[in-house]
Amino acid sequence: MSSVRVRVPATTGNLGSGYDCAGMALGLYNTIELTETESGLDVVVEGEGAEAVPLDERNLCIVSARAVFDAADWRPAGLKARMHHAIPVSRGLGSSGVAIVAGAVAANALAANALAANALAANALARRPLGTSELLRICSDLEGHPDNVVPSLLGGLSVSGERAGTIVYQTFSVPSDLQAVVAIPEFTLDTKVARGVLPESVSMEDAVFNLCSVGLLVGGMASGNYALLREGMSDRLHQPYRQHLVPGLAEVTRDALDAGAHGAALSGAGPTAIALATENHEGIGNVMVDAFARHGVTGQYRILPIDNDGCQVLSD
């Protein structure tokens, strides 16, 4: 029976101004080992949030794996899944998108192995593993939007969206001198709640403000002119409306900038805050955690590299 193991990076969505279109992969990982068995489903999860993760067909890794098996027209008789989570759940670090990408890529690799082993079968030529665009379509449909699944799958900084039923995207490699400082509160924040506080419409002034910010964000990252990130991560579309859900957020980002961060924002839907910096990473992390603490929020910070490789099928 075939077995595959994949590693998937965490992501930070929005990066302030790029609401539902910008995302970046971070050097913090979940792994999944998927094994074809003779029957049934066996799921084991360890690590961050393991107690809250379903161990049956509701598990997002299994949901996405089943979708890939259907699309590839190949189904294993049974499955065993072993998952190790280092990415906190419901903290704004893309955990749901990571689970979806992990299941999809692992299933695709498992299907590829099986189809290669049965290449002489009469119907083998009608079946094949999926390409990147097909995987993105499945993952985006399950997640609801592509801004987290694109960087989880492909790595780096990405801008993505949907046009006429097609996922359109561009990825950029990020130089290693830029790192992320993430201040992770102990409490969780459901994405549905964070989306529920947003207005149905915004002013033209605020829309134009964010258009300029996104241009500065992408231009600053692509050119290495990190001085643009302070304004490039400025936002009027979602953070002002979510601020009350994350006590101290304004002070956390302000103090991070004062300590030398090039830019700072809410990570995804929160409650994690992220700062991008080339120096004084520990000092930035400490002031972010201290700012949260002044508002009664306990947490910790992590210094993470930017992951430019995306989801990897591991050979060892």
Oligomerization state of this entry? single chain
Whole-number radius of gyration?
A: 20 Å
Tally of DSSP β-strands: 11
Determine the structural class based on helices, strands and strand pairing: alpha+beta
The proportion of residues in beta strands is: 25-35%
**Overall mean pLDDT score?**
94
Low-confidence stretches: 120-126
Helix content: 25-40%
Give me the strand/helix succession: EEEHEHHHEEEHHHHHEEHEE
Counted by DSSP, the helix tally is 10
Question: What are the defining features of this structure?
Answer:
single chain, 316 residues, alpha+beta, seven-stranded mixed β-sheet, four-stranded antiparallel β-sheet, 35% helix, globular
What's the layout of helices and strands?
Elements: E1 3-13, E2 22-37, E3 40-47, H1 60-72, E4 78-85, H2 95-117, H3 132-143, H4 149-154, E5 157-163, E6 166-172, E7 179-185, H5 191-196, H6 204-223, H7 229-232, H8 239-242, H9 249-258, E8 263-266, E9 273-277, H10 281-294, E10 299-305, E11 312-314
Parallel strand pairs: 3-4
Antiparallel strand pairs: 1-2, 1-11, 2-4, 2-5, 5-6, 7-9, 7-10, 8-9
Helix pairs in contact: 1-2, 2-3, 9-10
Report on this structure.
The protein has 316 residues and is of the alpha+beta class. Helix content is 35%, strand content 26%. The strands form 2 sheets. Strands 1, 2, 3, 4, 5, 6 and 11 form a 7-stranded mixed β-sheet that branches. The longest helix has 23 residues, at 95-117. It is globular. Mean pLDDT is 94; it is low at 120-126.
